[in-house]
Structure formats: structure tokens, C-alpha cells
Amino acid sequence: MSSDKAATKTSHYRRNEREEADFGPPMDLSFKKATNMDDLAKETARSIRTGKIPLRSSNKRFLTSTLWLNNNSLSSMSNLDNLVNQILDDSSRLAWLDLSFNNLTEIGDEITAFRQLKILYLHGNQLANIGQITKLRKLRVLRNLTLHGNPIEHENSYRVFVIMALPQLKKLDFSTIIPEEKLKAAPPGFFKVISSNITT
């Protein structure tokens, strides 16, 4: 990947996005060329983007609620839960997860273990089945989600579908969801997809 292309594929370091940084700076494992979660477990944190790495607790795990895994070559979320448990001091407090610019083709069930997740970046992957986003309904406090740059972005009524499927969202693809968007009619097949893909 050229340096110019890599430069355009970085995550935005924001909080509300920035709010989550109160619990330590991000654990940044981006740009590691990792193909699976086990690869990332062996890597050291980067500090080039924020100037800091999280402190370690007495058990040598990192004190942070933020994990950046973007710009790797991950094709699956398999073992994500193991990775988080291995490197974060309190995995239950994971609030911001960046998996953007990988090669993910599906949303793994592992993601639903992180019930305090508020920010999830999945843009720039290979997600092609829009019905898979219904798995994220279990993340009741999820407020900020990105999915642009995936094949599902080209589905008819993509934005309306996501907003209706995930009513807890406040932002989609870095754009605030306005009340009028939540009042739009459901796209064709919406309720069939919802009922066949999720149990709440």
C-alpha cells in the first residue's frame, strides 16, 4: 500500500469519541499487517497517533476502554473476545473498537460480548450481507457506527435500513441521525430480514 493511500485510511481520533479517552489513551494495534487476532496479541502498542500508550495494571494488562485494530488484514473477528480479554485490564469496559480498513466479510458473534460498546468502526471492509448488522441490536448502548466503504453501502435504502435496524444509534458513518430519518418508511423486506436474523 502506498504511503498516500495509507494516510487516507486512518481512523478519526475523536471522542464522544473523545469522552471514552478519559479511561486511558487508546490501545493502538493498527498497521501491524496482522491477518488474525492471535497475531495482534503478540504486538506492541503504537503511540505515534496519540503520543501515549495506556498504562498497565498490576496484572500487566492495559488500562483503557479503547482498542484500535484498523488497517490490518483481518478477514474474521474470530478470537476477538480472547484478544480483548488478554490485553485489556477490564474487557467489560471496552467502549470504542476500531476494525476499519481490514478484510472482514461478516460481523462475528464475538462482538456481542461487549455490551458497553458505544463506538464501532467497520468502514472499509468487505461486508456484503446487510442483514448481519442486526447482530448489533444486542449492543444496547452503541451510539456511533460506521459501515461506509463496504459493499452493503450500495444496497437500496442502506442508511434507512441501518437506522431502523439499530434504533439506539445517534451517528452513522460520522453523520448525525436526525429525527426525520427515523420516521421514514421501512425499506422493502426490512421486517423479514429483522425477524430472520436476530433474537433480542
From TrEMBL:
Question: Where does the record place the region Disordered?
Answer: 1-28
Keyword Membrane: yes or no? no
InterPro entries in UniProt: Leu-rich_rpt, LRR_dom_sf, U2A'_phosphoprotein32A_C
Predominant place of localization: cytoplasm
Q: Which UniProt keywords apply?
A: Cytoplasm, Leucine-rich repeat, Repeat
The UniProt regions of compositional bias labelled Polar residues, in chain numbering, are 1-10
Pfam families (alphabetical): LRR_9
- Annotated U2A'/phosphoprotein 32 family A C-terminal domain residues: 155-173
Q: Name one GO cellular component term.
A: cytoplasm
> Does the UniProt entry include the keyword Endoplasmic reticulum?
no
Q: Please state where this protein is localized.
A: Cytoplasm
Query: What protein am I looking at?
Result: Leucine-rich repeat-containing protein 51
